[in-house]
Amino acid sequence: MMGQKKLIWQIYPGCLVVTLAGMIAVTAYCSYCFRQVYHDQVRSELDRLAGFAADEIRMALKTQDPGKTGERLRDPFSDLDRLCKQLGRVSTGHTRLTIITPSGKVVGDSDEDPAKMDSHFDRPEIQEALQIGSGSSMRFSPTLGKRMMYVAIALPAAPRRAGEQVPPGSVESSAPIAVVRAAAPLTEIDHALHGIYVNMLWASLVIAAGAAALSLVISRRISQPIVAIKQVAERFAAGELDLRVPTPDSAELAALAGSLNKMAAQLGERITTITEQRNELDAVLSSMVEGVFAVDTKGRIVSMNPAAAGLLGIDPAQAQARQVEEIVRNVDLQEFVRQTLAGIQPDETDISLPISGGQSFSLHGACLTDARGRRSGAVIVLNDMTRIRRLEAVRRDFVANVSHELKTPVTSIQGFVEALADGSVQDPAQIERYLGIIARHALRLNGIIDDLLTLSRLEEAGEQRALNFAVCPIKPVLEEAIDLSGVRADEKRMTIDLACADDVEVRINPPLLEQAVINLIDNAVKYSPEGSRIRVQVRQDDTQVAIAVIDEGCGISPEHLPRIFERFYVVDKSRSRKLGGTGLGLAIVKHIAQTHGGRVTVESTPGKGSTFTLHLPG
Ligand code: ADP
Predict the structure, then answer these.
(1) What is the dihedral of CA 137, 139, 144, 149, to 10 degrees?
(2) Pairing mode, if any, of strands 495-499 and 533-540?
(3) 570: Cβ below 6 Å to ligand 1?
(4) In the beta sheet, which residues pair with residue 51?
(5) Of 132, 135, 237, 596, whose CA is between 20 and 30 Å from 610?
(6) What is the sign of the dihedral through the CA atoms of 286, 287, 291 and 292?
(7) How much is the pTM?
(8) Which CATH number fits domain 390-463: 1.10.287.130, 3.30.70.1350, 3.30.565.10, 3.30.930.10?
(9) Secondary structure letter of residue 300 according to DSSP
């Protein structure tokens, strides 16, 4: 992770700084104390030595000329250098003794030749001794190239008694005749302190390494359970919500682990609930006949149920995240979606739009809102209205057809009756012809009404489930139908062949099935040329019994095939009427097939013949 430090680098510097600072403080204090004690010790040693030397010098001067002072002492000072060198030799360590006159001239020195030495008048310890009787200072001696401590004692004209101290700030009763200075190098303490500092440096390095190791151990101990928690948290994020974080030793991390475990459990429960609800919703949407799809605010498909995909003829996977206009090229639908998204379209407004193949849909739309109540898209429901529209059209056509079919013979009858009634027709042959026409139209009216009644009875019985069905052999029913149609077939010198096994049995209502087969054979006779052959064939398989009526007639053009089972639908009106057709025969067949739980199909080749097949569940 960029910009984020490892735990060890957060702990280590702090540990190191605290330890080193403590160590430096302790060392500095100790070395200061040590230096002070040492300096005090050296100073008192030098003081003692200077005092001793002063006594010796005084003794020497007394021996030479006890009554003389001042100028007359110059000669006795000439021996002082030798005395200094003697005393210097007997003193311990590297102590140096120097005797200086009040004017600063060096008159004796244990190490050097006084003649070569410059004036010491400005030395701080000399100045101090001349003023207050004694003085000391520490400084670097360029002569010796070392740091030195100097202690100077003024040598008064009157002798100082042994052990007598010059009180600080007071001046000897008489002016000093010389200053005795003892000096010792401070190299020992400097060496000792240097050693301490070197040791301290090493100790610092060891401590730094120790602090690093300690920080590593501490950071490991802290980070290991955190890493373990992090790993489990990552697996939570990946969806493994059944896992649980192991409880670490520390109270804070244990609380964190507990909270994470609680969160995972709650998340798991919520996800389970959401999954269940989503599955329920999916199941509901999948089982819906209505097409449902949802779009986001930009009009992109978010989800689509199989019915919607089927109705719009698209693959639901390909529709995902695409604009509605990309997948359905229909301006009305796009406009409807746009208006629904804009909130203009009132909810559940119905519009119908023709999609490819002439299908009609009614659309209902509703806005979707998110958890904060903001508009997040829209859901559109598609209802396939094709069947309803077709049924409505069929019903409209039916009423129109019934009226038309009934009106034509009634108008004819009315016309001929009026002609006969007003007496204008006197010719008996003409009257007979008119009466014949009236009888034919009456017959046709009767036929239409019979067929309509049959249909209506079928519908009523079907609705009330008042029909009796029984499993019976099918062959006798077919033989009876062929017998009844035989008269009309004979008139056209047609043969009807039956191919049916004796043992074929099926669950039927025999009179109804007979009626359906008669209608099919009658049509075959009507629409086939004289002398042709009609075959009635029965096939049975595991699921059904198929009764096929095959003729060698005029056949039907493909464009009529989807509609010939509709009521009053005829291919050629004048021919049908001439042949005594009502346009209801096939509608009755279809209804009978449906009443049996089956269906009727047709295959036809214009000019070659047709095959009508009744499929009954076996
Ligand atoms: P119709 O009483 O006019 O025969 P149907 O409902 O029985 O009425 O038949 C509807 C139309 O289907 C007929 O007008 C006819 O054009 C056509 N049709 C029916 N059966 C045949 C067939 N076997 N061969 C050719 N056309 C047929």
Answers:
(1) 40
(2) parallel
(3) yes
(4) none
(5) 596
(6) negative
(7) 0.45
(8) 1.10.287.130
(9) B
Distance 583 CA to ligand 1 centre (A): 7
pLDDT at 262: 93
Q: Check if 517 has its Cβ closer than 6 Å to any atom of ligand 1.
A: no
Q: 92 pLDDT band (50/70/90 cuts)?
A: low
Residue 53, ligand 1, Cβ within 6 A: no
| Residue 564 in contact with ligand 1 by CB distance below 6 A | yes
Q: Is the CB of 583 under 6 A from ligand 1?
A: yes
Q: Where are the domains of the chain?
A: 1-157+174-238, 246-281, 288-384, 390-463, 467-617
pLDDT in tens, 369-427: 888 888 889 999 988 887 887 788 878 878 887 888 888 889 989 999 998 898 888 88
Can 1-157+174-238 and 288-384 be said to share one CATH topology? Answer: yes
CB atoms within 10 A of CB 324: 22
Tell how far the Cα of 283 is from the centroid of ligand 1, in angstroms. 45
**Residue of the CA atom closest to atom 8 of ligand 1:** 583
Q: How much is the pLDDT for 534?
A: 96
**Closest ligand 1 atom to Cα of 565:** 6
- Among 1.10.10.10, 3.40.50.300, 3.30.450.20, 3.10.20.80, name the CATH number for the domain at 288-384: 3.30.450.20
Residue 149 near residue 125, CB atoms below 8 Å:
no
**Closest ligand 1 atom to the C-alpha of 577?**
3
Pocket test for ligand 1, best of 448, 455, 523, 550 (most atoms within 8 A of CB): 523
Q: Quote the CA–CA distance of 497 and 491 in Å, as a whole number.
A: 16
Q: Is the CB of 133 under 6 A from ligand 1?
A: no
